[in-house]
Amino acid sequence: MRGRVPRDVWFIAFIGALIYSLWQVGLLDPSRLGRFANLVPFIVQMIPPDVSLVPLILEATYETVLMAFTGTVIGGFLSLPLAMLSSRLLFPKHVTVPFRTLLAVIRTVPSLLWALIFVIIIGLGPPAGVMAISFYTVGYLGKLFYESFDSVSKEVLEGVGAVGASQLQLLRFAIVPETANYIISQLLFIFEYNVRASSIIGLVGAGGIGYLILALAQSLRYDGLLMCILVILAFVMGMDAISSKIRARFLR
To answer: Does the N-terminal peptide bond of residue 110 adopt cis geometry, omega within 30 degrees of 0?
Structure first.
């Protein structure tokens, strides 16, 4: 076809862009590549893991899970009305646009930055972490929920609306039943994600196991750092298995 760019040209352009990007970020700099030799002594200092820290790590992990659960529940509840107000099947454009913009702004800020903001506002500790997770969850789930609401069949809405149902009744008797499985699935996913995020936001003082990881790294306790990683890995794998069973049981 005339004017069509050959695939080889696109492939060469992609490879060129990749090499340029690697060079710009320093991954092709020989002086930087030589520093990867530090990986071996780093691993040596991590082995064997310090099992004496397991009780402290489990306590921090417990706090992390509580933060993730609380933030997910709060964010999930808040995202539903915001998603409803953002749905074009329920409200006109002059209503949905401001709320979609609000969700986009909330979603743009990563959970780590939210944690830093709330640490500055309300101080160190789990409350800042819970608020950070809640805000990120609202932005994430709000978008997914209003997109799922908008995908509901118009025939279903017309059938419920034909009996004089209000907007709230449309949501309760038509939209929520049609999207319930998707909502539950996304809540499970964001909870899994928030557990991982809670492990990171502690690095800025928002509580959880991240705060312990930061303390161990700063004190060069790499054997304790490895123990943290192993506990987090075991917990996340267990949580993924439980989540899969819940999906298989309720989301057939």
So the answer is: no
pLDDT digits (tens, 9 = 90+) for 80-115: 888 888 888 777 888 888 888 888 888 888 888 888
Decide: 64 and 126 in contact? Cβ < 8 Å.
no
Give, rounded to a whole angstrom, the gap between the first and last alpha carbons of the chain. 46
On whether the CB atoms of residues 231 and 49 are closer than 8 A, the answer is: no
Closest CA to 156 of 175, 179, 182, 183: 175
Q: Helix crossing, 209-218 with 222-250: angle to 10°?
A: 160
By 3-state DSSP, what share of the chain in percent is helix, strand and coil, each rounded to 5? 85, 0, 15
pTM: 0.74
Q: Where are the domains of the chain?
A: 53-250
> 112-140 as b/e, with b when 16 or more CB fall inside 10 Å?
bebbbbbbeeeebbbbbbbbbbbbbbbbb
What torsion do the CA atoms of 157, 162, 165, 169 make, to the nearest 10 degrees?
A: -30
What single string gives the DSSP state of each residue in 177-201?
HHHHHHHHHHHHHHHHHHHHHHHHH
- What is the dotted CATH code of the domain comprising 53-250? 1.10.3720.10
Q: Which two tokens stand for residue 160?
A: 């419920």
Length of the chain: 252
